[in-house]
């Protein structure tokens, strides 16, 4: 599978490198940590899509995850087996990376776009006072770093 860089034009590649340099100078997060957050973002998107489409089911009583197998013609469930809960581990990894970089993670629950945003209180200026206990949901799209590629 091609990497994002292998499918870029020269102009896109130059713009990408300029943008990546901002990670160090503006956001103070390493390229490797950003790359890890982007990989976690892609895995969360895949997991959430599978949940939304009914392939993965989380039992509300036990909080255990199951994969449902459906008949392709009727849509009826013909099998169900337990799977590991990757979602919780991904959340923990992303939070650990943010803590290592003196920041926080906002997890946006809609799988149609970026799901992980990195932010710091110092970067969230303007009329908002953002901290780990404040509601960043009202301004994450303009005040936080979207972690995707």
Give the key terms.
149 residues, alpha+beta, three-stranded antiparallel β-sheet, 4 helices, globular
Envelope shape: globular
- List the secondary-structure elements in sequence, H or E: HHEEEHEEHE
Helix content: 25-40%
Q: Provide the low-confidence segments as ranges.
A: 126-131
Radius of gyration: 18 Å
Strand content: 15-25%
Question: What class, by secondary structure content?
Answer: alpha+beta
Number of strands: 6
How many alpha or pi helices? 4
Biggest sheet: strands, sense, closure? 3 strands, antiparallel
Mean pLDDT: 82
Strand order of the largest sheet: 1-2-3
Q: Give the distance, in angstroms, between the N- and C-terminal Cα atoms.
A: 14 Å
Question: Can you describe this structure in just a few lines?
Answer:
The chain is an alpha+beta fold. It has helices at residues 10-27, 31-52, 86-100, 140-143; strands at 56-58, 65-70, 77-83, 104-107, 116-119, 145-146.
């Amino acid at each position: 599978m091609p990497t994002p860089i292998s499918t870029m034009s020269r102009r896109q590649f130059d713009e990408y490198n300029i943008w990546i340099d901002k990670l160090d100078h503006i956001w103070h997060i390493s390229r490797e940590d950003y790359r890890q957050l982007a990989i976690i973002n892609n895995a969360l998107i895949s997991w959430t899509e599978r949940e939304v489409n009914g392939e993965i089911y989380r039992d509300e009583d036990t909080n255990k995850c199951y994969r449902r197998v459906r008949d392709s013609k009727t849509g009826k469930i013909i099998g169900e087996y337990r799977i590991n809960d990757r979602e919780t581990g991904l959340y923990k990894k992303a939070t650990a990376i943010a803590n290592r970089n003196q920041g926080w993670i906002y997890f946006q629950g809609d799988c149609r776009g970026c799901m992980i945003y990195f932010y710091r209180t110092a970067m969230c200026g303007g009329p908002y006072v953002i901290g780990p206990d404040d509601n960043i949901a009202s301004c994450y799209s303009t005040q936080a770093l979207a972690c995707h590629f």
